[in-house]
Amino acid sequence: MKRFLAALSLLLSLSFPFADLVCAQGDQYRFVMVSHIGSNDPNMNWLTTSMKTFDEKYPGVKTEYLSTNEYSLQSFIAILNQAIATRPDGIAVPILNSEALQPILDKAISSGIPVVAFNIADSRPPDQRIRYLTYVGGDEYLTGLKLGEYVIEQANAGKIPKPTKMMCANHDATHQGLKLRCRGMTDAMKKIGVSVDELVIGADPARARSIMQSYLSTNKDVNYIFTLGTLSCP
User: Fold this and answer.
1) What angle do CA 124, 129, 134 make, to 5 degrees?
2) Which one of 7, 59, 178, 201 counts the least CB within 10 Å of its CB?
């Protein structure tokens, strides 16, 4: 919740230094948040709450949230293009795939639309990344690395079994944030000589189950599964 509120607040303050004053005078601004998180995702709980908090803090600003329940990178790009075409006063967007989104966001930024990245950053070097104002969110690589270090710590303490081999269940191969989590876990496991296989399972629960069962039936030495946050986890 704090991340999203901070993202829109920062976008507002950077774009319009005297935003509180002009909003009080009755001027209106419209910001669009384009996201891969749909209404069927539990993350909508904190998004809904934070948008309500933002609206209360900035009554002169209209916020819009755009997403689809059936996520794909193509659908996400289509919605992003639609949002840009409406010429909003600013956009907040996760950088799901840097190469795919760069030409789109570069064009929006060049046309005068401020952009803030949230949830997922452009992980490339500063001179190569998308020229958004700032990023609000965590470090996905560190998420995987720290979780892996925690597993090792707990295993060394005898609280959980020691890993022999791990499978990283990735539900979206185009999502660079998920791949960074898997890479972080892989680097953590390397410290104890444990290999990690990345398996693309898709977001459909039935298909994910079938793919994992098939993999596990031929990889008997796997005793840990690292899931990356998909709704197919249960």
Assistant:
1) 110
2) 59
Q: Is 72 left (phi over 0), alpha (psi -120 to 50) or beta?
A: beta
* 129 and 31 both lie in a single domain: yes
Looking at 87, 104, 136, which one is the last position of a domain?
136
The model's pLDDT over 23-35, given as tens digits with 9 standing for 90+, comes to 444 458 999 999 9
Per-residue pLDDT at 167 exceeds 80: yes
9 band by pLDDT with thresholds 50, 70 and 90: low
83: tokens are 């949002």
Q: Which amino acid is at 204?
A: D
In a domain, 78, yes or no: yes
The total number of structural domains in the chain stands at 2
Sequence-distant (6+) residues with CB within 8 A of 65 are 32, 33, 35, 47, 51
User: Are the CB atoms for 41 and 231 separated by under 8 Å?
Assistant: yes
Q: What is the reported pTM?
A: 0.76
**Chain length of the chain:** 234
Residue at a domain's end among 113, 136, 159: 136
3-class DSSP assignment, residue 167: strand
Residue type, 92: A
What's the mean pLDDT in 7-36?
60
Are residues 46 and 30 part of one domain?
A: yes
* Residue-level pLDDT at 20: 43
Which pLDDT score, from 0 to 100, does residue 73 have? Answer: 87
Domain coverage including residue 68? 2-136
Examine residue 233 and state whether it is found in any structural domain, yes or no. no
CATH number at 6 reads 3.40.50.2300
